[in-house]
Amino acid sequence: MVMLFHEGGLARQLRLSGVEPVLLRGRHRYDPGLVRAANVALEAAGCNVVHVHGYKATIICGLACRRHRRRLVKTEHGLPEWNRRQPVVLCKSAANFLLDQINTRRFVDEVVYVSDDIAERLRSLHRGMPVGTIHNGIDAIDASLRVRPADLESGRLNLGIVGRLTPVKGLPVAIRALAQSEVPPHIHLVIVGAGEQEKELRELVAELRIGHRVHLLGFKANVFDYLAHLDVVLMPSFHEGLPYVLLEAMSLARPLLCSRVGGLAEALEDERTGLLVEPGNVSAWAAAIVRVAGDDQLRLRLGTEARAAQARSYSLERMGNEYRVRYERLAGV
Q1: What pairing do the DSSP bridges indicate for beta strands 275-277 and 256-259?
Q2: Do 3-137+316-331 and 143-313 come out as alike in CATH topology?
Q3: Which class does domain 3-137+316-331 fall in?
Q4: Which of 128, 166, 179, 211 is the most exposed place for a label (fewest CB within 10 A)?
C-alpha cells in the first residue's frame, strides 16, 4: 500500500502499474487530521511495516504508529539544503529538519542511507540506532525505445544537466565553464528541469552572452528521451546522495562528468565509469568539457563501463532484496 500527500506524477505512474495510491489530504501541511487518516489507512491495509521517505512522512507516520505495533524504516536520501538567502525559508527548513530528527529517534526502528557518505554525515544524529546503507537501484533502461527530442539538434555536441534548478546542483559552474574561451562553439548545454534558480540562471546566461548555446527547457515528462540522446551528462553538484538521474544516465551508457562529492564520487570510478571534477572549479570543468568533447573513444568507453557498473551494482532487484530483508526482520517473519 502506497500513501502520498498529493496528486502528481508518482500517483499517475502507480496507477499505470496497477496500484491505486491512498492520498492523504490535509487542510494545511501540519493538519493533525493527516495522522488520523494515515492510521486508518494503515489499519485497513493490515500494515505492520511502514517505510517512510522525507520529513513529513516521518512525522505523520511516526505519530500514526506510536500506539500500534507497526515498525518503521526510514530512508535518508540526502542532506538538508539550507537557503540562506531567505531567512524565513531557512527557519522553516531548520524547524522541519529538527522535527524530522526528533521523530526519527522517537519512532523509527531502522535508518537506511542511500550512500556511505550520507551515513557518515548523519551518524551523530542516529547514534545508538540500527542503521545501514542501501544504494539506490533501477531497472535497466532500453535506449533503443527512446526518441531523440527535436531540442537536441544534430551538428553540435549536446551536454546536458537534468534535475532541479537549485543552488546545490551547481548549475552556474557549468554555465560559466561553457563560456570559457577554450570551449569550442559547437558545444551546447541543455538544461532540463525547473526550480527556484531559473530566473538567476537565465540572467547569468544573458550576462555571459551565450544564450545561443545554453538552452533551459524547463520540466520535461519524457526525460529519458533526453538522457538517452545527450552526448555527455553533467552533474556539477556541491553535494548529492545517490541521485536516480546518475543511475539512469549510467544505464543509458551516457558519459558522465560529475563533481567529486558524496554519492557521485562513491558510485563512479574516475577515468573508468566517469570523470570526476572538483566542485565549483570553473577552469577544471571547462578543461574536462574540452577533453571529453574532443575524444569520441573516451565518451564511448566511459558510457560502456558506466552501463556495466549500473547493471552490476545498482540494480532494482538488488536494492529491493536488501530492503525486503529488513522488512522481514522487523516484522518477525
Answers
A1: parallel
A2: yes
A3: alpha beta
A4: 128
Is the CB of residue 253 less than 8 Å from the CB of residue 143?
A: yes
Three-state DSSP class for 39? helix
Q: Is residue 263's pLDDT more than 90?
A: yes
Amino acid (1-letter code) at residue 61: C
Tell me which residue has cell 526510514.
74
- Per-residue cell: 89: 525559508
* DSSP, residue by residue, 158-226: EEEEES--SGGG-HHHHHHHHTSTTS-TTEEEEEE---TTHHHHHHHHHHHT-TTTEEEEE--TTHHHH
Give the E-state strand segments of the chain in sequence order: 3-4, 22-23, 49-53, 71-76, 110-113, 131-133, 157-162, 187-192, 214-218, 232-235, 256-259, 275-277
Q: For residue 208, count CB atoms less than 10 angstroms from its CB and return exposed for 0-12, middle for 13-18, buried for 19 or more.
A: middle
Q: How far apart are CA 96 and CA 177, in angstroms?
A: 35
pLDDT surpassing 90 at residue 83 = no
Fold classification of 143-313 (topology level) = Rossmann fold (3.40.50)
Strand partners, 277: 259
Q: What angle do CA 116, 119, 120 make, to 5 degrees?
A: 90
| Number of residues that this document lists for the chain | 333
- Residue pair 75/238 in contact (Cβ under 8 Å)? The answer is no
Question: The cell 543511475 sits on which residue?
Answer: 247
Q: What is the pTM of this model?
A: 0.93
The domains of the chain are located at 3-137+316-331, 143-313
Question: Could you tell me which of 204, 209, 198, 213 has the C-alpha nearest to residue 153?
Answer: 213
Q: Is 272 left (phi over 0), alpha (psi -120 to 50) or beta?
A: alpha
Residue 20 C-alpha cell reads as 491505486
Over its C-alpha atoms, the chain yields an Rg (Å, rounded) of 21
Q: What pLDDT, in 10s, does the model give residues 303-316?
A: 999 999 999 999 99
